[in-house]
Amino acid sequence: MNFARSMWHQLEPVHSVLYFSPQAFEEAAALGYDIESRWPSYFAYRTAPLGPVGANAAVAAYYSFSPRAIGEHVPAIWQVASPEQVLRTRLRAVERTYRALLGDRVDGPGVAEAAELARRAAESVSVPARLFTAANLDLPWPEEPLLALWHATTILREHRGDGHLAALLAAGLDGCEALVSFAAIGAAPVQAFAGRGWSGQEWAEAQERLAVRGLVDGDGQATERGRELREEVERTTDRLAAPPWQALGEERAQRLSQLIGPLLGAVFESGMLPMTSTLGIATVKAPD
């Protein structure tokens, strides 16, 4: 597997606990967000670095979410709490989550070393055309090593994500088509994408557009051309995500991988992440 992609597979779950942990939902509820669905807190936590943006800016940043779904939450989330309040809360949620998972081990020297390495990679990223990356990089670095490590993983995963959206755009895939083409290669079941907010009709219309281009067949399965296009998207994403890992160097990146192992293992063992990820990465521990 490409090294940049391998690092993303390890860092993504470490970051994503924010959107699934009981502690993060508790903190969101304390701010006043409805937690019957995960989406109000998700949009608040992830969008807060951008400031009090409106729906159009959020649609541009998120890309593959239905504009209608985004409009249900943005800008309404800022009527519940300000971005500044949300940013403070998400760090508290992350700290509570990892202390619940690992206890005092989060204060150990391994976490501090990992934070230093991850920060070095994160501070080397390029920001042009990367909205989420730049917004998170503009935030002050937390002093606590655990939170600095999480902040660095956030910058690095958003860096890859922003590059991925550029790759999708270059491939001529709009937001819904991006998901349909991803489901078509078997990356995740169609129903796993329901939270992105596209209607059945919109999904069918996107599938038809892809069929006209010869990217899916009559059953919605990827053709050879469709698979080749998705592979090209992933190769481009890997290439665009590579610079911070090249800057860090493979030896130090491998050391970071080793150091975050306990955090990654604790996340997997907790079972808090969904069994099926729409990102195409493992979210549960592989069987021994």
Outline the fold blueprint.
Elements: H1 3-16, H2 22-31, H3 39-47, H4 55-62, H5 67-71, H6 77-80, H7 83-102, H8 109-122, H9 131-137, H10 145-170, H11 175-184, H12 200-212, H13 224-241, H14 243-248, H15 250-259, H16 261-270
Characterization of the model:
This protein is mainly α and 288 residues long. It contains 16 helices and no strands. Helix 2 (22-31) packs antiparallel against helix 7 (83-102), helix 9 runs antiparallel to helix 10 and helix 11 (175-184) packs across helix 12 (200-212). Residues 284-288 have low confidence and may be disordered.
Short overview:
By secondary structure, the protein is mainly α.
Radius of gyration: 19 Å
The CA-CA distance between the termini, in Å, is 21 Å
Helix-strand pattern, N to C? HHHHHHHHHHHHHHHH
Strand content: under 5%
Described by the principal axes of the CA atoms, the overall outline is: globular
Number of strands: 0
Structural class by SSE content: mainly alpha
Number of domains: 1
Average pLDDT score: 94
Fraction of residues in H or I helices: 55-70%
Largest sheet: none
- In terms of per-residue confidence, which ranges show pLDDT below 50 for 5 or more consecutive residues? 284-288
Number of helices: 16
Highlighted features:
288 residues; mainly alpha; disordered C terminus
